[in-house]
Amino acid sequence: IFQKEGNRIQRWIQQARFPTLKTLEGFDFSYQPTINKKQIQDLASCRFIENTENIIFLGPPGVGKTHLSIAIGLEAIQKGFEVKFLTLAKFINTVEKLTNNQQSTKRLLSAMLGPDLLILDEVDIYETDIHANNLLFEILYKRYEKNSTIFTSNKPFSEWNKLFGGQTRMEMILDR
Predict the structure, then answer these.
(1) Radius of gyration over every alpha carbon of the chain, rounded to an integer in angstroms
(2) How far is CA 110 from CA 2, 44, 135, in A?
(3) In this structure, are residues 55 and 48 in contact, taking their beta carbons and an 8 Å threshold?
(4) Tens of pLDDT along 113-149?
(5) CB-side exposure of 48: number of CA atoms within 13 Å?
(6) Distance (Å, rounded) from C-alpha 62 to C-alpha 41?
(7) HSE of 168, CA atoms in CB hemisphere, 13 A
(8) End-to-end CA distance of the chain
(9) Is the separation of the CB atoms in 88 and 132 below 8 Å?
């Protein structure tokens, strides 16, 4: 049984497509004293996934947003939750390749809706075209109250409207 569980964990880690493996044990909380260690440990319990809640890590570059999101993702896999990690740049590149292919777009949509936890990293760096922001909006709208999402961003919410194609749509997503 232990080997079978170990194999599942390794397979799901590969399927999550983390750019690197980071753990909570490897995070230096003393370097970032403004980060509440107890709150992060609570998030690592994955109750937020059970409650279909979302997390947003906001802050300047280099504070550990990606590290923490990966570490929480790894904890989720250990606890039996399926996880998918991707950067906004990777999402945009994938969507641009699918612009005129409805079947592939449906597969991408399905792949983004399925995981218990979707980690969307570097939400702030890129502006999306109409097809990408429509698909991103649809993914997040359909995941609401069904699956959890972690966002990491360097930008305040006031600058997210370009990502979702307008202020109203951004407010709808953030409200969820």
Answers:
(1) 16
(2) 31, 26, 11
(3) yes
(4) 999 999 999 887 566 677 777 788 888 889 988 999 9
(5) 20
(6) 20
(7) 0
(8) 39
(9) no
